[in-house]
Amino acid sequence: MMDRGLYPHYVTVKSVTNTKDDIGGNTISYTELAKVYMSKRDMSGREGMEQLRDTATTTTIFKTAYYISGLTQDHVLELNSVQYDIMIIKELGFRESQEITCTAKY
């Protein structure tokens, strides 16, 4: 049984789907894959200009309480309405848990 205090964040794992709308444009939609308890550690952050707008980017490492089968870099994580793009997925042990390195833009 997992120690709930080590994984305080309830994170939603979503898969991304691109669909075509009526006029042929791409529409991105998200489907909930799982809700998982994870720990969260902010590693770095930076600010800059992107398309004449101030933007901030953070790099965050999440650690799962258990292994999420089928998780790929095409999925996204969502916590407190912030969407994190998955960059690296590292398996810990033999399918015991995962360490997921993500970036988020604000």
Structure description:
The protein is mostly beta strands. The protein has a single domain (4-105), classed as Thrombin, subunit H. 0% of the residues lie in helices and 70% in strands. The protein is built from no helices and 6 strands. It has a 6-stranded antiparallel barrel with strand order 1-2-3-6-5-4.
Secondary-structure element series: EEEEEE
Supply the CATH architecture.
Beta Barrel
**What is the residue-mean pLDDT, rounded to a whole number?**
87
Task: Write the CATH homologous superfamily.
Answer: Bacteriophage SPP1 head-tail adaptor protein
Radius of gyration: 15 Å
Flag low-confidence runs: none
Broad CATH class: Mainly Beta
Query: What is the number of strand segments?
Result: 6
The class by helix and strand makeup works out as mainly beta
CATH T-level fold name: Thrombin, subunit H
Helical percentage: under 10%
User: How does the major sheet shape up?
Assistant: 6 strands, antiparallel, barrel
Strand content: over 45%
Provide the number of structural domains.
Answer: 1
Silhouette = globular
- Report strand order across the widest sheet: 1-2-3-6-5-4
Number of continuous helical runs: 0
Distance N terminus to C terminus? 36 Å
Brief synopsis:
With 106 residues, the protein is an all-beta fold.
What are the SSEs and their pairings?
Layout: E1 9-20, E2 26-50, E3 53-64, E4 75-79, E5 82-92, E6 97-105
Which key terms come to mind for this protein?
106 residues; mainly beta; single chain; globular; Thrombin, subunit H
